[in-house]
């Protein structure tokens, strides 16, 4: 009899544990599904706009509209995404690459460059580096006004101006092995 009661007690304990563990797992699964559905929703909007005949502007035109130099990114981008509600820009490239500009500056890009796009500024940049003695991460690129002839690169505590005309034309990039 005692063995039977012990067995019933252990079943109750384990049945209590299983629902709690199941609730945790279901919670994790629902979070993953939520993230996945948001991504699918964004991609679906992009595809729908393509099918509807609402093509995205070329990236140089988009940059020009935001008073940024059109040659800031290479010619060979795969595509870009712009979330206008959050001003988030994501530029996709086929591989990690770099560009040498006519002012002798060099910028490296990862396969995906993210940033917040606003009038005259691309901030919170991830995936871009420039050489200032050593390679440093670029955190923002800004043009002070429409008539300004300078582009300001902010990189890990360093702010450097460069001539705007060096970035007026998109250039071909060179593939690099590592970013």
Taken in chain order, the helices and strands follow as HHEEEEEEEEE
* Unreliable sequence segments: none
Total strands: the figure is: 9
Helix content: 25-40%
- CA radius of gyration is 25 Å
Count of helices?
A: 2
Task: Output the structural class.
Answer: alpha+beta
Mean pLDDT: 83
Main sheet makeup: 9 strands, antiparallel
Share in β-strands = 25-35%
> Tell me, what's the shape?
globular
Taking the alpha carbons of the first and last residues, their distance comes to 70 Å
Describe it for me?
It is built from two helices and nine strands. It has helices at 2-51, 59-65, and strands at residues 79-83, 88-92, 97-100, 106-118, 121-132, 134-142, 150-155, 158-163, 174-175. Strands 1, 2, 3, 4, 5, 6, 7, 8 and 9 form a nine-stranded antiparallel beta sheet that branches. The chain is globular and about 65 Å long. The model has no long low-confidence stretch (mean pLDDT 83).
Blueprint of the fold:
Elements: H1 2-51, H2 59-65, E1 79-83, E2 88-92, E3 97-100, E4 106-118, E5 121-132, E6 134-142, E7 150-155, E8 158-163, E9 174-175
Antiparallel strand pairs: 1-2, 2-4, 3-4, 3-9, 4-5, 5-6, 6-7, 7-8
Can you summarize this structure?
The chain has 2 helices and 9 strands. The longest helix is centred in the N-terminal third of the chain and has 50 residues.
Keywords:
32% helix, alpha+beta, nine-stranded antiparallel sheet, 179 residues, 2 helices
